[in-house]
Amino acid sequence: MSRIFDALQRSGAEQTGVTFPDTLSVATQLLQITEEAPQQCKEVPISSLEFPSLEVSASPNGRLVFLTEPESLAAEKFRFLGVRLRQLQQVRAIKKVLVTSTIAEEGKSMVSANLAGVLARRKRHKVLLIEGDLRRPVHSKQFGISSREGLAEWLRGEVECPSNIYYLNGPDFWLMPAGDPPSNPMELLQSGRLATLMAQLESLFDWIIIDSPPLLPLADTTVWQRLSDGALLVVREGTTEKNPLQRGLEILKKGDLLGVVLNSSSNGSHHNYYQRYASASLAVDKA
Q1: Mean pLDDT of the 84-113 span
Q2: In terms of DSSP bridges, do strands 257-263 and 207-211 run parallel, antiparallel, or are they unpaired?
Q3: Quick one: fold of 63-282?
Q4: The model's pTM
């Protein structure tokens, strides 16, 4: 093979007057480049990685009712939401669910965490919650792991593989925190590495819940929307206004909207009814 390469080299030099480097020189340079280049994550199957397990305690302000108040009306509503998603999964491909809102302070992070919790309690499903709001992360602070590397470090290429995913004992789901808040979140999200990450994670988990930024006034959520299978829009009674809601619905494609979650409903009659129902159920179970 080396004689053939040398003959081509001499022929090229005679025709163009340009002398090509010898075979040994080319091979040496390629070897040096290979040795100096950092290892790429694609060479290590993500399925072979073992994610660390963390003992965490939920913040009282986090309102993780599926964990702290499992017999409450709110917890029952989240279980019902999980049932509806599983039913929908039987008729269309749904695994990556985007949870968003029109503006901030409507409860999307609370909804996404409780949804991940109730889905994880069904037949030991593997559920991953991604803290996709790189600007105002909530979950990592809530569980006391703000110092852990997360999504931002992966997008910046500071970690070789997405090993910065943590299994949370208690909530029983996995969390990929936002990590160190970047100065250019939109640029990072559009880098292309996010699509690679989601393709890898999809084969590992039964559900992937993405807590994204609000739809307004930023465009970050449009990136997550392209990588998800559908979206839940959280609205809050007494907070969400009509015009922002209409603008948010215009941003979400009609086929991508899985449903609307009403947060902070003031219907007290439902609460009273469920308290009586829950007490009766517990009495029967103990009998």
Answers
A1: 92
A2: unpaired
A3: Rossmann fold (3.40.50)
A4: 0.76
